[in-house]
Structures are given as C-alpha cells and as structure tokens.
Design goal:
alpha/beta; binds 6-O-phosphono-beta-D-fructofuranose; seven-stranded mixed beta sheet; Rossmann fold
C-alpha cells in the first residue's frame, strides 16, 4: 500500500496529536504518502485533505486536541454520505484509511470496510475508555489525571469547611473515568451507570466516615449515572453537612497528554501503519496485558464493555 488517509473523529482526546505524528512519521519511514483529512468523516465527505510531510507534525506530540480537528458526522450514518466519502478516497487514490476515534468512529470505519471494501485501521482515541477489546483508550489516562488535579483542590477546600463535594466526570455510558479517578483520589463514594445506588446507603457511609474522624467527603458521579447538581440537591436533603456540586466538564478533554498516553499514541500509530503497509486492513489496534494487539474491527465493535467490579470493591474497602 502506497497512499493512506488519516482522520480523527468524534470527541477529541489528549494523545490524538501524538498518534497523528506517529502515523505520519511511520508512513514516511516506509515511503508511503499520507493525506490528513480535516474534520473527521465530515471532511472526508467534503474532501478536505492535504498531503502531510515530516514537518507537518513537528511540535505536536505534547499538544492536546487534534491538529486535524474533528467532528461528529451524522451524514456518515447514511449511504449517501458514505458514498461521498468513498468517492473522495477514490479521487485521491487513497488505498487505506487510519481512523482515530471512539466507538461511533469505528462504526464508520467498519462500514467503509464491510460495505465498500476499503481497508481501515482504527486507533482507539476517546477519554471514555469504553471499548472492551482494549485495556486502555488514548486520552483516558490524561483525562483521569486532570480529574485528579481538580479533586485534589476540591478536597482542600471541602476539608476546611467540612463539606461534601459532589464531582461530575464524563464517560458517556461508561463509569471508568469515575472509577479510576475515584479510587486514585481517595473519594469515599463513586456513582457509576453500571451499578444502581441507594442514597440512604451513601448517607450511612458518609456518617460513618465522619464518626471515624473525617472532615470532608468526595462523591464522584459519572455523567451516565447522575448530574452533580441534581445529586447534590438530593443528598443535601438527607445530610446536615453542607454539599457543593462541581462539573469538571470539557476541561477533562483538553491538556497536554500524559506519558502513558503519548506512549500508547506512538505504539498505536506505528502499529496501524505497519498493518496497512503489509496490506492488512479491517483491524483495530489496542493494548491488552501490556502488549500492543490488533483485532478484527467487526468483532471489536460488537464486544460489550465490562465493568471492573473488583476495582469497585477495592474502593469500597479502602476509602473510608
Ligand atoms: O466521548 C467523549 C465525551 O467527552 C463523553 O465523555 C461525553 O459524554 C461527550 O463526549 C461530550 O460530547 P460533546 O463534546 O459533544 O458535548
């Protein structure tokens, strides 16, 4: 394969730029041409691509966001949009496509592969960590670290005022950001979409922690389970301690990627191009048990994300 396309799609994630760099540099190493497609599938449909060179990706490894920009493209869900996308690829002689994005973006890639025979490779780029086939998605580590910075600050002020902080984090339908941020920040309670909660149990846990000498509490709620504002109001009705709500919001999507995310980006980007170079498409790359893996894209998108109940129980035991 001599000519490939590259796009980022869906919600951006820290590490996408580092992955773009790895894809471009690996492709150039093998003497392949790379075309960067701006604004994800929307750009593919509208034909917004340009040839990327060695220096097109200089100085971006440390940057959050995505140099290629991104979009959520509804048109890609219907055959007319898909046909336009295929036409653009044909027009530029693009033989394979690397798609950096989450679940929805992979569905677009799956369709290009399955229905139109275009070899695609998916790189999992989303802060949500909601893809079952890979232990981690690109951006998750940085997003959790950003949440930790915020929660550390909240802990300071909540302890001074002996308050309860309800902090909302993202994750769509997946509780992983709340789970990992909760366990690593020392939050007493996490509320995730995978497990139903009982407000009276939460109040009991808070009371017990206060009896044991705690001066503040952190409750991390995943957006898929509750909104911080509503949860805080409900909790305030049942407790004498003062409750405050914070929604971290899009802050957790930005910022310089962590070492872990830059490393994943380098490995994912490199692996994606090596597959295409060998004429292999219709795969996604990921990490499992510390090894970089690839898997059939159709199989990967059909896997149901499992929640780590063991980590949840660990939190229950050690955050008192
Ligand atoms: O998928 C990433 C994500 O940040 C989710 O956690 C969140 O639900 C969603 O995107 C927010 O989307 P938008 O930026 O379009 O509001």
């Amino acid at each position: 394969m001599k000519r490939i396309g590259l796009l980022t799609s869906g919600g951006d994630a820290p590490g996408m730029n580092a992955a773009i760099r790895a894809v471009v540099r690996t492709a150039l190493y093998y003497g392949m041409d790379v075309f960067g497609i701006e604004r994800g599938y929307a750009g593919l449909i509208e034909d917004t691509m340009y040839k990327m060179e060695m220096r097109s990706v200089s100085n971006i490894v440390q940057l959050g966001g995505t140099r290629l920009r991104t979009a959520r493209c509804l048109e890609m869900l219907n055959p007319e949009g898909q046909k336009k996308a295929v036409k653009t690829l044909e027009k530029h002689g693009i033989e394979g496509l690397v798609v950096i994005g989450g679940d929805g973006s992979f569905r677009g890639a799956k369709c290009l592969t399955e229905d139109y025979g275009i070899p695609t490779i998916g790189i999992p780029g989303t802060i949500d960590n909601d893809l079952e086939y890979t232990d981690y998605t690109l951006g998750f580590d940085t997003a959790v670290n950003t949440c930790l910075e915020v929660i550390n600050k909240l802990r300071d002020t909540m302890t001074s005022h002996e308050r309860i902080s309800v902090v909302e984090v993202m994750g769509r339908h997946c509780g992983d950001i709340a789970l990992y941020a909760g366990i690593t920040s020392g939050a007493e309670i996490i509320v995730v979409p995978e497990i139903s909660y009982d407000m009276n149990d939460i109040v009991t846990r808070i009371n017990r922690s206060r009896e044991n000498g705690k001066h503040s509490n952190i409750v991390v709620v995943a957006e898929g389970a509750a909104s911080a504002d509503e949860f805080a109001k409900e909790l305030q009705e049942l407790t004498p301690y003062s409750v405050r709500a914070t929604n971290i919001g899009h802050i957790q999507r930005g910022g310089s990627p962590s070492m872990a995310d830059r490393m994943l980006a380098a490995q994912f980007g490199n692996k994606a191009v090596r597959l295409l170079k060998d004429g292999i498409g219709n795969r996604v790359v990921g990490i499992h048990n510390n090894s970089i893996i690839d898997m059939d894209i159709i199989e990967a998108v059909s896997m149901k994300k499992r929640f780590n109940y063991e980590l949840y129980e660990t939190l229950q035991m050690i955050s008192m």
